[in-house]
Amino acid sequence: MSAPEPAAGGVTPRFGVVVLTMGRRSAELLRGVRSVLEQRGVAVDVVVVGNGWDPATAEPALPAGVRTLALAENLGIPAGRNRGVPEVEGELLFFLDDDAFLPDPEFLAKGAALLAARPELGLVQPRVVDPTGLASPRRWIPRIRKGDPAHSSDVFSCWEGAVLLPRAVFDRTGGWADPFFYAHEGVELAWRVWDTGHRAWYAGELEAAHPVIDPARHSYYFRLNARNRVWLARRNLPAVLVPFYVGSWTAIQVLRWARRPAQLRAWFGGWLAGWREDPGERRPLRWRTVWRMTRAGRPPIV
Fold it and tell me: Which parts of the sequence belong to the Glycosyltransferase 2-like domain (predicted)?
């Protein structure tokens, strides 16, 4: 994408930026924050949210002008992001994980120009690359047919580490799914963006950097992966579609991990928890949204 044109009327796009951290990556956190402050053609209002940690104690210290919010306990990734939103101003929002950064100093300006040119877009996820040159995992391209990572398209989930939204759209979605703690909150946010009448978009021409990390390194990965799949259906789907969505993902996981019984046992433990535990607020998608998603390439049953 070429350098952005000045906004209509000479108005500079304003981004409220929420950077989430647990305080375990001080060098990476500073790199990510600096990459936001170095953005050109936009105004940024940045808060660093410490999930069970006080970012004001960071060493090296955060740059001047960056505000901090310390959460007394780790509330989980989606809840931590949500807590940061009221702390920042701007008609646009940008969420950045503490181990991600923006190599292009015009990234946010280009994202703002894309959103201005295409008001039907309610969420933009960039292409993600490893800064050391490692091959990017296929999961970073949130579509069934992965294809060329530089190809842009509608999507129905998002990689959550670098996401842009108009604040008005984010507010209408209800925000990130607080109860999820970890895993699949990007699926729910994308679904709810679609339910506002907007589209979730993968922008292959925008680039964010993030190291390749195996998500299964977390001991709770398999359990929360399954629990939150069930919660996605219970919170967001019309009742008749719930068994189709859960059933399709159950079949997929059984086939995927049939030779990994320990992981499969943990997954089914989470699957049972998904039915037994309270998933929080239920806001089923409108049938109009289900039809729009189906026409765009992915009915919400898989």
Answer: 18-161
Residues 280-302 as b or e (16 or more Cβ within 10 Å = b): eeeebbeeebbebbeeeebebbe
pLDDT digits (tens, 9 = 90+) for 255-266: 988 888 888 999
Q: Are 202 and 152 in contact (CB under 8 A)?
A: yes
Contact yes or no for 161/139 (Cβ under 8 A): no
Residue pLDDT, tens place only, 120-168: 999 999 999 999 999 888 889 999 889 999 999 999 999 999 999 999 9
**Tokens 């990459």 sit on residue:** 35
Query: Which amino acid type is present at position 75?
Result: L
Residue 289, helix vs strand vs coil = helix
How are the residues of the chain apportioned to helix, strand and coil, as percentages rounded to the nearest 5?
Answer: 40, 20, 40
Type of residue found at 88:
V
CB-based contacts of 166: which residues, under 8 Å, 6+ apart? Answer: 91, 92, 93, 115, 122
Cα separation, 193 vs 152, in Å, equals 17
| Residue 131 near residue 31 (C-beta atoms within 8 A) | no
What letter represents residue 175's amino acid?
Answer: G
Residue of 272, 184, 265, 191 lying closest to 228 (CA atoms): 184
Tokens describing residue 284: 């089923």
| DSSP per-residue codes, 110-164 | HHHHHHHH-TTEEEEEEEEE-TT-PPPPGGGS-SSS---TT--EEESS--TTEEE
Strands 92-97 and 67-71: unpaired
Residues in the chain: 302
Token duo for residue 162: 């670098």
Model's pTM, two decimal places? Answer: 0.94
Q: What is the rounded distance in angstroms from the CA atom of residue 206 to the CA atom of residue 195? A: 25
